Predict the structure.
Amino acid sequence: DTAVSQTPKYLVTQMGNDKSIKCEQNLGHDTMYWYKQDSKKFLKIMFSYNNKELIINETVPNRFSPKSPDKAHLNLHINSLELGDSAVYFCASSQDVDSGNTIYFGEGSWLTVV
Amino acid sequence: GENVEQHPSTLSVQEGDSAVIKCTYSDSASNYFPWYKQELGKGPQLIIDIRSNVGEKKDQRIAVTLNKTAKHFSLHITETQPEDSAVYFCAASFYGQNFVFGPGTRLSVLP
């Protein structure tokens, strides 16, 4: 039973295309995130949703649009893909404000834009 | 905002030796400090964490120490094994909000 699952794991697409990455968590957590990991392994937060509401939106091009149909799902849609969007995208979740708010990560989605 | 620095960026040790990775943070309000291990092709996995009311925590071969005054915390791995080879990330947050990650340390344990 995967706690945070995201699909697809690998995605190769051409510049200009639109693509989506789906994420689901079965931990009952209130908060979900999207992180981007570049080639240097740096983890940078993109978005954070708490109970379907956007609470963090870092400086990310508006070509990236997260959608949370319910608190167990947070999907990432990317329009007009660019070469620089190539990276690993991690979905994650955590419980709401409390002691022990560990972030649990999915296995990652490797996006390659050609 | 919070800024987390992590050193060294790469670390090679002989199997059986100890490894130490250090992180510093800037926001004195941060009170939760987890460490993650990322193996090749996988997502980061929590290996140990520490809260600001504790100075040290151990879990078998892994320990974390926290110095709130100096605003730094360290990961200690003893008796390293080849399967400890991975990228390690530290992070800082305030009550589990707004996690900020360090840039990572690539640890190689040489047999």
The mean pLDDT of chain B is 94.
